Amino acid sequence: MTSRKKIALSILTVAVLAIGVFYFTRGSNRHDTHFIDPAFGEYVTSYTSGVISSGSTVRVILAKDGVDSSAIGQETSTKLFSFSPSISGKTVWLDRRTVEFRPNDRLEAGQVYEATFQLARLFKVAETLSVFQYSFQVIPQNFELSIDNVKPYVKTELTRQKIEGQVLTADFSPNESVEKILTVSQDNKSLKVTWEHLPDGKRHFFIVEDITRKETASKVNLKISGKSIGVKSDEEREVVIPALGDFKILTAKVIQNPNQYVVLQFSDPLKEKQELNGLISVGAAGKLTLDFEIHDNEIWVYPPVRQTGTQTVYVEAGLRNITDYRMKEASAVEVTFEQLKPEVRFVGKGNILPSTDGLILPFEAVNLRAVDVSIRKVFENNIQQFLQVNNVSGTREMHRVGKTILRKSIRLDNSGVTDLGKWNRFTLDLATLINAEPGAIYQVTLKFKRSYAAYVCDGGSNDDLATIDNEEIQTEADEGYRGDDEYYYYSDYEGYDYEGGYQWSDRDDPCKPSYYSSQHNAERNVLASDFGISCKRGTDGNSIVILSDLKTTEPLAGVSVALYDFQQQLIGTASTGSEGMAVINTKETPFSIIAKKESQRGYLRLVGGESLSLSGFDVSGESISKGLKGFIYGERGVWRPGDSLYLSFIMEDKNKMLPVAHPVVFELQNPQGIVTNRQVKSSSENGFYSFATDNAADAPTGNWSAHVKVGGTEFDQQIKIETVKPNRLKINLDFGTERITSPNMTGKLNVKWLHGAPGRNLKARFEATIVKGNTTFPKYDDYRFEEPFTSFNMETQPVFEGLTDAEGNATFTSSLKASTHYPGFMNVFFNGKAFEESGNFSIDRFIVRLPPAAPRSRQRR
To answer: What pTM did the predictor assign?
Structure first.
């Protein structure tokens, strides 16, 4: 070996050693920032960590006050945060213990940030605790594009189609950037793509417009690029547009939750009223009793019980599209009924557990052999602070008001359930887990790890449950300090069991660690109480609070009710009477109600928009302005130009708010808002004020307004002034029957002037419109006498057009078009006009019933 080669080898060796030392040293230092000295728990209770969104702020919550109240909401000049890589932004105190760093821009996707918090600049601490170091990662950006459907704009117009789909992004993406992901063309012609974006910036729906369906099959080309959102991904797809007349099945997929069914997607919209039994079957034997739903070009097939494994769906020839065209060839598609993914959920939506039920909390789980239960207690003296940002079921900022008091693992596979692969119901007896404190709210959270799943992946199922002890209760006296395995504040990516690192593309795969995140947690707030509270508040400042017993529905007497404002200050108190009602008058609008009686507590937040819906009931009532009620009315509903208007105003002054002879001002305004009449009266007859006025013969028609002003209160009423042209001719068309029994009709027409003279030599015209009626018979209300699969479109046809004789009479014979497609009884609307010599006309309209055509009998030979 030459000396030159030896020198080169030595240099290479030194370089490798240097790189290795740098790598392992850097890795060691990085590991040290992930280890948090438990001694920090004396000063720090919570902090931002784990995997967070790019739009998140960075918070640290201290165990004691860091500043006085004057600093709240203000930007601090003290540099408390530093980051690697660096982040520009500002630091703001949210309260005395919470400090937040607000980045100027969104954080870089996928970046791991090392955070340093200068604790020594707030407190006198040991040198080893002067700097609090930790790390967090921003969600790596990624996306998925899926095609949901290809269908026409109008069911019966198959030549003009559209493609519906959606783009899902791992984290927030600007709308304009997402719209650059997709470009579409057909036959080298660019197609327009319209978008609809959800506010979270993660779900984006698109429609590819104006796709032409031709006599021959064609393709729509989709070019997909993630460059605009920072993802290195380029792809091209083709969507086949079938030829016109090629009625066939396109795709089939299985929906697993909440009910299992198969979605069959066809090239054409389907006829909604057709018998599908016998045309569609599942499995070779075809013995399953199926239910069907038709949605445009889709058929949803519901099996009677949950299916597993791979099955074949058979679609026979004879299925009809929207134009009644039959599918020519039978087809078969394979679908896979997968296992249900591991999930847990609470049953129902309520948050209050009455004492009759104990503290039993039901929940349901699927493909899980165990769950982790954690219970956080919201202390009674923190309830008002909790209600400032939550209703009773809320979960925001729980660390400010509550503390975790229990964590426990509970086995589900030893509860007697035979099939963990379907949704099974279990119960938690909270009374055996905690000593429930009256007035406290408990947040119960159910989680699960990958090792708890009964879901079978390649390589077999997990059997790692030997360490779970169903009897051992693990309590934590002081949650206080939290490590970086959980992320405080708002995050859908709270770390729970990221054994192999989080991958957004694996988030829906139960065989990957990324599935087991907080997005699958179930949370429920529970308040043990027998109080049912309702409150109504009017414009008079009275809050009517009604309390009833949830167990018996009986009213509760002797309950202390207190109203508080948003700042937690008491503004009114009362006790309920024998009817369970308390009326409290307050000038301020109350924010919350706290009800107490012995050990029972009840809470109600009074926030606009959170009240129960009353849209199905007429409960609006009237708003009483300054203690006065009033109503304006006239002697009729419509006036003509030039008519006199006799209007009256009735007023009720129940509380004697007005002095005697107080003036009442009346104004009449035309549609342009111009006052045409003004009157003032100071006397009435038992509260009735009359105002007589008129309008000019050339007054504008439309909606006029009558205004009455009294005691600083105004009352309004719309007045209609229209040009009304009455009939001057009386028209009578008689067929001699109330029901048409034959298509051939003989009609007798008589026209008279309203003063009695005959309408001689006047032109008359009648036409008939046939529409579907109701086919019912007395005593047979439960029967249906109409053909369910026969539809009928409205038909209009002329019946008579001619002149009356010298006596105003005309006799004619006409016939209705015979139809064998009447589904039942029909209604025939006859509309007629009789014309004066001047061209003015009068009208007449009436209805006659038409029975369906009876089948003709056949004579045997």
So the answer is: 0.53
